[in-house]
Fold this protein.
Amino acid sequence: MINSIGHFQRLWAKVSHYYSKNYQCLTKNPRLFLMRKIARFESIRNWTSYFHRGAEIFYENYKKNPSIFGDINLETVVVSLTTDSYYLGINLPQAVLQELLDFAMTSTCYGNRDPALAFYYGDKERAEILSGKQFNIGSYLNNTEMSSALKKLESDSGLLAIAAKFLGAAPVHVGSELLWSFPLSATPLDQLKAAQVFHYDLDDYRFIKFFFYLTDVDPSSGPHVCIRGSHRNKKFSHQLLGVRCASKEDKEIVDYYGAENVLTICGPAGFGFVEDASCFHKATPPRDKDRLLLQIEYAINDYGSLRSF
Ligand SMILES: [Fe+2]
């Protein structure tokens, strides 16, 4: 009985959060709303890709301007993305990692992504006491625009060439986030907001995300988890549901796509990977150590306010 009440509360929290965000999106950003309604269907995403051009200039740029990641086999990366939904091992040079860590230690981040809850990482406990709230995440939000290391990464010739080859179009940088995840027992709504349940993203008809661990990540410190190959041949009801798939139990998603395809991505500080985030994926809550992650996203279109909805 207690279990079924808990299940109902979890489901209700997820569904009500979804409808509230959906209404805001329709009224404030109808172009984004329309894309989210139709891009969930794989056939439409494939069809729209025929209309895009402009990727070639980014391959040329990569040949002329070295990437901080050294030599990248674009073909290997994109084949892996297309078949598996990810490619592992685009790692940050030590100097860039250190620059990003220095930035994280000396800049303010925001508890639970709330602009009213600014704090320095070293002062987290005091900030929680002062605000009377516990933080399960801490994002640097727009403060990342002050990071010169991040600016260089966002315009790196190698990352742009991968994005261009995968998108088949000129990549548009649509956002970056530097984010702490803290060990905390979160409510279902907190878990949904922190993307800690299986879901897939609908950020554009085609889009791609690069992730870099800035702290060591093992199975207990919040690894990213994805389901290999789930960007293709989704169950039709999962296409219909779109981002509402987050309201489904993780077990149901895993049962359909296969436990053998669930990949838990661990790695030392500096480890990077790239993902077609239209596959099912989730963040996991760290159990004992804080995790710092950098995410950089490119797409074909910029809808302006993806994170708000
Ligand atoms: Fe996601």
